[in-house]
Structure formats: structure tokens, C-alpha cells
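Work Package 3 (structural annotation) set out to generate three-dimensional models for the target panel prioritized at the project kickoff. During this period the team completed the workflow that converts sequence records into C-alpha cells, so that structures can be stored uniformly alongside our sequence database. As a representative example, we reproduce one entry of 298 residues exactly as it appears in the project archive.
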Amino acid sequence: MANLKEIKRKIASVKGTQKTTRAMKLVSSAKLKRAEEIATRSKVYASKLTELLTEIAQKMKSHDVDSSGIDNVFMRENKNPKKIDIVFVTSDKGLCGGFNHQTIKEANKIMQEYINSGVEVRLSGVGKKGIAFFKYNQVEMLNQIDDLSSKPDYARSKELIDSLVEDYVAGETDKIILIHNGYVNMIMQKVYTQQLLPVDSSSLELTESVSMSEMDVEPDDDDTLLNALVQKYVEYTMYYALLDSLAAEHSARMQAMDAATNNAGDMVKKLSIKYNKARQEAITTELIEIISGMESLK
């Protein structure tokens, strides 16, 4: 009977866990829908911003800029960087499968590659899970931002990236890299590694032909306009990474909780079979004892 009570207690415990994971799945599903809508709207703005930057870069190229590339502090590639900034985005909460692990793994890999090449790396983290990992491994961090990945805020995001851009413009660093786990669809996430600065001009798909837009760029205003646009581009890219990461987090958590719910269901079935077998064995044993007792009385 003690064994039966123990199995029954386990079944009740697993069923309670199953109810919790099912509820968390439903919550993540609702949050995912809202986060996906916000990320989709933001992506439209980010795409238009990139198109505008591409067009201005095209028109700059048609002026007196050297054919080898655009001579601008935000686009001047340093072939031998001495110091770089790496910014990663993870979640503030767990229970989302391998979502954070993938981002941390990528950030750690890139950081080690640069360190092995003799490049100094400054690490900035957004999200408690990633920060906790690097602190545990005694990795020094320049910035540690909590409660931003779970509640994306443009002002706080801008404050973080602007401080890094200032160091880049001042020549203290040579490159800024952003790493985040982004949303692809409800069942898939993808780790994105993006070089924020210097802006990779090849990624803008520059061509010799000038865009057909009515916008005109005067040569004397090239740096002023481009600098302001690149600043906005970098700020919004950082903010969009937070929105994209949040949508991916809810997607990963929804999957993880769905898998946990199904696993709990399988465990309940196995425990129920085990309970029934133990109960049948107990009944059989009692019957044998009764029959043996009756036989002994004859």
C-alpha cells in the first residue's frame, strides 16, 4: 500500500506540473502574438531606414567619393582592429529551451576568436541569463543591463548603444558587433550576428546607378546627413534586436512548455500503468493469502 500511495502522489504531482506548463504555454502564445505584431511593424520601419541609407550611400558614391568605398568614419573598415565591442541580447527569464544557450554560445565563440587574434574585447550584456553566465565564468563586462530584453525601451536601448558609438567615433574602439536570437516563425529562431559599426557598405548593395527617387544629396552635406542617418540606423537596429529577441523568446518558451506538457502527459500514462500493475499485484497477493488461510482451516 505504501508503494501505491507513493505512485499516486507522483501522478498527482506530475498532473499539477502539467497544468502549470499548459498555462505557461497559453500565456506565451498570447504574448508572442503581441510581440510578433510589434516586431513586424518595427521591421517595416527598419527596412525603410536601411533603404534610405542605401540610397544616400549610392548618391554619395556618384559624387566625389573614391571608388574604393565611402570615406566616412561610420563606414571606414579597419582591417586590423585593436579593440572591439560585442553586445549580446538574452532573456531575463528561463524556461525557454535552448534560446539563451544559442546566443551565449555564439557570443562566446566570437569573443574567443578575437581574443585569440590578439584583439581586446569589451563585452556588453542585455538580459539576466547571459549576464549570469559570463559572471559565473568570471568574464569582465563593460555594461550589464537587466529588465530591458523583457521590456524593450527605446530610450534605454539608445543610451546603451550611444555610449558605445561615442567610443567608436573617438577612436577608442574599432568595431561594434550585435548578437541576438531572432524570431523566424512560431517554431523556429535564428541567431543573428550583425556588425553595427563600421557599417558594411557591401551589405547596402551599392551600385553605380543612382536611385530613381526625387531626393537629392548635395556633396557638402554628405557627412552631416549620413552621420545623422547612420546614428539613427544603429540606434533603431539595437532597439529592433530587442523586439525581435522578445518575440523569439516567447516562441521558444511556448515550444518548451508544449514539450514539457506532452512529456508530463507521457509520464502520467507510465505512472498510471505502473500504479495499476502494483494494484493488481497487491490484490493478487491478498487473494492468495485468503485462499491459503482457508485451505489451512480445512
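The chain has a mean pLDDT of 86.
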